[in-house]
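so my prof wants the structure for this chain in the tokens format not the other one, which i didnt know existed until like an hour ago. anyway here's the sequence
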Amino acid sequence: MFASTGAQEHLKEKFEQAQRGLIMSRYYEDAALLAEKLTRWSLSIENPAKRFYICSGGGPGIMEAANRGAQNAGGPSIGLNISLPFEQTPNPFQTRELSFEFHYFFVRKYWFFYLGKALVIFPGGFGTMDELFELLTLVQTQKTKKYMPIILYGSEYWNELINFNALVKWGTINREDLNLFHFFDDVDSAFEFLRDELLKLYPAEPAEQNNIYI
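here's what i got, hopefully its the right format
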């Protein structure tokens, strides 16, 4: 049985779309598992004042996965939701008492970055790019004094989307700026990196809430 060229192209497009959907679903699963592992580790810290908490943008997709993972581990999680005319509705996995809604993106980002102790960036769209590059700019220009571990999860996605080496080549960033973030492709390695970095940074953290943003 033969198909026309147009039908073949349509089938190819559908197949590639399904493949991309499968990869994105894996990112969802990895985000949930990473949040779950981080939450279980945090809950094992004897002093509650020294624990870390998952915080997401409160919406669907990867944000939902982060809150779901924390809930699976039996821990609370934060949702910093944004008011939008479409798309964004608070996911049901964030802790109700820790679900907040913002009207302005810049206020929401302020609370992301001000309280954050680590940042994990999964594949996303314009909003993800906005948050990533604003934070990298703050760190690069030393507008924020604290060191924050930054993970770009999913090197295939990020390297296809952004040619960071081209920014170095054209002199728009320094080669040292590539050390501001780290690529990871598996949950265990990302978890171990975050755990070790956080333990080095906050061995005796004062009694305040610590947040890991995904």
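also thought this was worth mentioning. Residues 5-213 form a domain with the Rossmann fold fold (CATH 3.40.50.450).
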